[in-house]
Design goal:
Blueprint lengths: L1 H10 L10 H6 L2 H23 L1 H7 L7 H19 L5 E5 L9 E5 L14 H4 L1 H7 L7 H17 L6 E4 L14 H10 L13 E4 L49 H4 L8 H6 L13 E2 L3 E3 L4 H6 L48 E4 L19 E2 L12 E2 L10 E4 L6 H17 L2 E7 L2 E3 L6 H4 L10 E7 L17 E3 L44 H10 L16 E3 L21 H14 L4 H8 L8 H16 L12 H33 L1
Parallel strand pairs: 2-3, 6-7, 10-15
Antiparallel strand pairs: 1-2, 4-7, 5-10, 8-9, 11-12, 11-13, 13-14
Helix pairs in contact: 1-3, 3-7, 3-13, 5-8, 16-17, 16-19, 17-18, 18-19
The structure holds a DNA duplex (7 and 7 nucleotides).
Length: 684
DNA sequence: ATTAGGG
DNA sequence: CCCTAAT
């Protein structure tokens, strides 16, 4: 369910709201700040989904999966891991946590320096660091040779369909004090010693993180308890009665009921601690580590258990993509809006130069074992576009999860773990926030033509949908041509359709790239589902929500990541301010109408009131935004229609804008005049 | 915290 | 949208 929730966001093109600038947020009203914080949490959620899916594993992992077979497998893996790590200078130990239960993950740690920040050795790292595995990939050092081993290992595991196997690399990190919640090193070490070599392990889902760390850094991204509150956000469905009143009118308040992402994220109930993660604490010391960390790729391995669990059908045929292009996502200012920051000064396509790489294998088949997986609005509606046919069969799909594309990070060795976290966070946020495209793959081929109907494309209800896959891809527009973008970073595979529910015909929100182009690096993604969740409730949104809450679609997320962005670690300069520009959220006509109405009534200059009256529910619209919008509206109204850009605003509204503007300007002038007179009188 | 304006 | 200055 948790996943579900997140999926919703992801699939709907939910854009992770940017973390507000500290300076800015500081100036914001508490309510706004709060909203932003919620946003952050949401962003985090996405990150979690994306980066790790471990959540799922954790939750659905059968607690008792230590069958002898499992153990055997584990032994194999374990030794493989050991061997692998023994090649590394630091002697590493493979530990299996068989803490009895939900997590039987294997951790690889450097005995001499183990920092399990914030968690005791007895605790499941996974539990506390769901993100770790995902993020860990960014901390490793490339090593081709190792990789093959890792792959081999992985593949073997895959074949055997072993259970979860998560290795965690930990290492020496000289600056981990940044974490308030971290336990003392001594204590940590002790704890580690206490539980040496455990051997059990194995679990459902396979997650192998083979990393070569020259100097492993512990990523302690403590994710919020992802959880829970599955309660779906109730979205105000409607609401805008707009009356055409003239300015000084009575009060028929008109509120833009907004279904704001922020708001809807009610499901994101996270411990307050989450914030810490997002809000980087003041940096400590300077980091000048020049460790180059680059992740290589994530592999996907099917999970036996999952398959078993899912009643759909045990055959998971994850669509694997070859990782050929490491998509270096070079963010543009837009996509990576961190202010005043240089991006990618370097980052050669193949950071092999002394870089670090790592093999991160992860099982992405997020099949909810509990079958609870239900639906999320993310599922694509498999309707057909040929809507005139009397009986139009519907295709049912279920998409369980998406992962975030791989990306690379470069950061100095001297960086603090905290800064690392921030860097990763920024990178992820940038990726997510920049908007991802959704790609559709049929039989492994990318389908591009958006205008074809599903039927024409070969996606029909009676087809075996296991050949259908979805993937999230970086927004091409943000990708500099120079860097050959990898193709689908993520692949989700849908397996057999599980007729559970019918979905409305394509709403047009779901765009698919249809095109049979086997060519991998073609990066022309289709329109991606953008977060059009602006405040104004739209029929579409509503319908989406409804359909969303229903049952599930069948989806088998098997994906393989390809690549992505290179995140330049902080350029020593202004790296501290994690300022991000807010995402752009064009005003909808509805909102404009509400704004116009409010201004007609309240006048210009009372933006606070306008906000309260008409946009109280639109968390992301600040009074400043409204004021700015009004400004642009006035401007728009004055220029010729040909010069206008963006979503056209009804002329009628623009006329009202001009009228209202003139009216209130006049009022303002009168007021001033009166004041002046009064003053003059007093002076006399 | 708001408002007003320039960028 | 952001940023600043001035309230």
């Amino acid at each position: 369910m948790v996943l579900q929730k997140r999926l919703d966001y992801g699939f709907n093109g939910y854009q992770v709201p940017p973390v507000p600038r500290a300076t800015r947020s500081a100036r914001r009203r508490g309510s706004f700040k709060k909203k932003h914080e919620e946003n952050q949490i949401c962003a985090f959620d996405l990150l979690a989904i994306v980066a790790g899916k471990l959540l799922l594993d954790k939750k659905i992992a059968p607690s008792s999966s230590n069958t002898s077979a499992d153990k055997d497998q584990c032994a194999v893996i374990n030794s493989a891991v050991k061997n692998k790590w023994q090649d590394v200078e630091k002697s590493l130990k493979v530990e299996a946590c068989d803490q009895g239960s939900s997590d039987n993950n294997i951790y690889v740690s450097d005995l001499s320096h183990v920092h399990r920040q914030g968690c005791s050795s007895k605790e499941s790292l996974v539990t506390q660091n769901d993100l770790n595995l995902g993020l860990a990939s960014a901390l490793t050092k490339p090593d081709c040779a190792e990789r093959s081993n890792a792959e081999r290992l992985v593949s073997g595991q895959t074949k055997n369909e072993i259970g979860t196997f998560a290795s965690k690399a930990e290492g020496d990190s000289s600056e981990y004090r940044e974490f308030g919640d971290c336990k003392s090193e001594a204590a940590t070490k002790r704890a580690v010693k206490d539980e040496p070599h455990k051997s059990g392990m194995v679990q459902s889902s396979t997650v192998v993180n083979m990393c070569n760390l020259e100097d492993p850094v512990v990523l302690d991204a403590k994710p919020p308890a992802l959880v829970s509150s599955d309660s779906r956000a109730k979205v105000p469905s409607c609401g805008n009665r707009i009356s055409n009143s003239s300015y000084p009118t009575n009060q028929d308040d008109l509120h833009v009921v907004s279904r704001d992402d922020d708001e809807n994220s009610s499901g994101c109930t996270h411990p307050i601690t989450t914030k810490k993660f997002f809000r980087p604490a003041p940096r400590i010391g300077d980091r000048r580590i020049r460790k180059f960390l680059a992740s290589k790729c994530w592999k996907v391995a099917p999970r036996l258990k999952d398959a078993t669990v899912s009643n759909s059908d045990g055959n998971f045929k994850p669509v694997f993509r070859k990782r050929q292009n490491c998509y270096r996502h070079q963010r543009s200012e837009r996509i990576y809006p961190f202010k005043k920051r240089k991006h990618f000064a370097y980052s050669s396509p193949s950071n092999s130069d002394g870089g670090m790489s790592c093999e991160f294998v992860s099982d992405f088949s997020l099949k909810g074992s509990n079958g609870d997986a239900s639906v999320s609005r993310s599922r694509m509606h498999g309707g057909q576009r040929t809507s005139f046919l009397p009986r139009d069969s519907h295709v049912k799909l279920r998409i369980k999860s998406f992962s975030v594309p791989e990306f690379l990070i470069e950061i100095p060795e001297s960086s603090t773990v905290g800064s690392l976290k921030r860097t990763v966070m920024e990178a992820v946020t940038a990726i997510l926030g920049s908007g991802l495209h959704v790609g559709v793959l049929l039989q492994g081929k990318k389908v591009r033509e958006d205008n074809k109907t599903l039927r024409q494309t070969g996606i029909s209800h009676n087809n075996q949908l296991d050949a259908l896959g979805f993937c999230l891809e970086p927004n091409p527009s943000q990708t500099p041509p120079s860097l050959s973008p990898g193709d689908s970073p993520f692949l989700l595979q849908c397996d057999t359709p599980q007729p559970i529910r019918r979905y409305p015909p394509p709403t047009g929100e779901v765009h698919q790239d249809i095109c049979a182009d086997p060519e991998p690096h073609v990066n022309n993604l289709g329109n991606y589902i953008e977060s059009d969740h602006d405040s104004a409730p739209s029929p579409t949104d509503t319908s989406m929500d409804k359909s969303t809450n229903s049952k599930a679609l069948v989806a088998v997320p098997a994906m393989n990541v390809e690549a992505l962005a290179v995140v330049p670690a902080h350029q020593k300069s202004k790296r501290s301010e994690i300022a991000q520009r807010r995402i752009r959220r064009p005003f909808s006509v509805t909102e404009v109408e509400a704004l116009v109405h409010a201004v007609e009534k309240l006048g210009t200059g009372r933006w606070r009131d306008v906000k309260l009256q008409a946009f109280d529910n639109a968390k992301h619209r600040t009074y400043v935004d409204l004021k700015d919008k009004w400004k642009t509206l006035v401007h728009t109204a004055r220029i010729s229609p040909q010069q206008r850009r963006g979503a056209p605003v009804p002329q009628e509204l623009l006329d009202r804008v001009l009228t209202a503007h003139a009216y209130w300007s006049q009022q303002q002038a009168k007021q001033q005049f009166k004041h002046q007179q009064a003053e003059t009188c007093l002076l006399l």
